[in-house]
Amino acid sequence: MKKILVIIVAALMLVSCSASKMNIVKDTYSKGKVIINYPQFENKNDKEEIKTLNKLIEDEALKIMNQYDINDLSGLEIDYEISFCNEKIMSIKYSGLGNAKKAVYPNNIFYTSNIDTQNQTILKLSDVVDVDETFLDKFKGDNFSAVRSEQIGFLENLSTEELNNKLASNNFYISESALGISVEVIHVLGDHAEYEIEYTNLDDNVRWKSFYDKYINEI
After folding, report:
1. pTM of the model
2. pLDDT digit string (tens) for 155-185?
3. b or e along 28-64 (b: 16 or more beta carbons within 10 Å of the residue's beta carbon)?
4. Distance (Å, rounded) from C-alpha 197 to C-alpha 203?
5. What is the rounded CA–CA span in Å between residue 213 and residue 193?
6. Cα dihedral sign, 160-163-167-172
7. CA-based angle 186:189:192, to the nearest 5?
8. pLDDT tens-digit profile of 35-46?
């Protein structure tokens, strides 16, 4: 049987989680024309709990592969940015380009991963905020700011059902001062759009206050 070569390349990065002594390294999954970079915790002492956590991070990074038939791909390149990290949580943004052989144009890709590093679980948006009518009104209104100016106003005409469907993807991230949410948009607008709300504008959200105290407040 012909063997498929899978190369995992590890490169040290001068990155560490705040409030944690653990360094982070960059790993690269490379198979054919697929290249996906993702973070890993440095594990010099080969600790089992770090192995398990790193496997969870890797699986989250490679979940984009579930959306493609690798035989139909002419290229897939993904890089990452850690938007927030402490000893309790890691929030990761992945972005790049996917090229299907029969596609007219490449697809701009954006997805996220939010990991409770202590309990080694994946956090959903509903773990972070109450996605209720008040939150949806904020999402459509001025409390959320579009990261890219050309995507301002996209959310205004969406129905509640459409908003909930877009939020169901759990494509969100945490930064030092804001909660960001990414939604799918038409290709001419970039395929994805990110909107951010400052922490201070979420003070009336009960679940957010609980999440903030548990994960973000100074340790």
Report:
1. 0.88
2. 988 899 999 999 999 999 999 999 999 999 9
3. ebebeebbbbbbbbbbeeeeeebeebbebbbebbeeb
4. 11
5. 28
6. negative
7. 70
8. 999 999 998 888
